[in-house]
């Protein structure tokens, strides 16, 4: 393992945002890693919801609310302005086809480290 020599090297290996094309919208959006405090807020908000064995939310209504909240906080334009962080934006996300949102949601979960933890990597 090499010794880290500068922040740029680390940032290149651990990106905090990624552009994702949304064909159905005809635009790209930027999916951003949540800041630590926002990650804690969203995790705490949904921690008491029923979960399946794989850790996913059991009820579709909870899953939809989680997706709308995570995407509202994560999706921006290239200048960093949040696109859906409003009641109107969250309503739009709730009404959107799940197939359109899934790739965005997958990237938001991955970037923010909200997915299931791999127990084999603990030690």
Can you offer a commentary on this structure?
The protein has 123 residues and is mostly helical. It has one domain (8-114): Phage tail assembly chaperone gp13-like (rbstp2171, 2-Layer Sandwich), CATH 3.30.2220. The chain is 46% helix and 11% strand. The chain is built from five helices and three strands. The protein has helices at residues 7-13, 36-46, 60-74, 87-95, 98-112; strands at residues 17-22, 27-32, 75-76. The protein has a three-stranded antiparallel beta sheet with strand order 1-2-3. A hairpin with a 4-residue loop joins strand 1 (17-22) and strand 2 (27-32). The longest helix has 15 residues, at 60-74. It is globular and about 45 Å long. Residues 118-123 have low confidence and may be disordered.
- CATH architecture term: 2-Layer Sandwich
Strand content: 5-15%
Instruction: Assign an overall shape.
Output: globular
- Helix tally equals 5
Query: In terms of structural class, how would the helical and strand content be classed?
Result: mainly alpha
Q: Classify the helix fraction into a percent range.
A: 40-55%
CATH superfamily: Phage tail assembly chaperone gp13-like
**CATH third-level topology:** rbstp2171
Mean pLDDT reading: 86
Instruction: Give unreliable regions as ranges.
Output: 118-123
């Amino acid at each position: 393992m090499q010794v880290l020599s500068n922040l740029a090297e680390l940032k290149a290996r651990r990106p905090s945002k990624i552009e994702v094309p949304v064909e159905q919208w005809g635009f790209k959006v930027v999916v951003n890693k949540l800041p630590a405090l926002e990650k804690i807020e969203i995790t705490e908000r949904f921690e008491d919801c029923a979960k399946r064995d794989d850790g996913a939310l059991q009820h579709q209504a909870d899953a939809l609310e989680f997706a709308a909240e995570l995407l509202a906080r994560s999706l921006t334009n290239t200048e960093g302005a949040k696109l859906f962080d409003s009641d109107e934006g969250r309503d739009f996300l709730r009404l959107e086809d799940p197939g359109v949102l899934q790739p965005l949601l997958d990237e938001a979960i991955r970037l923010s480290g909200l997915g299931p933890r791999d127990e084999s990597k603990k030690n």
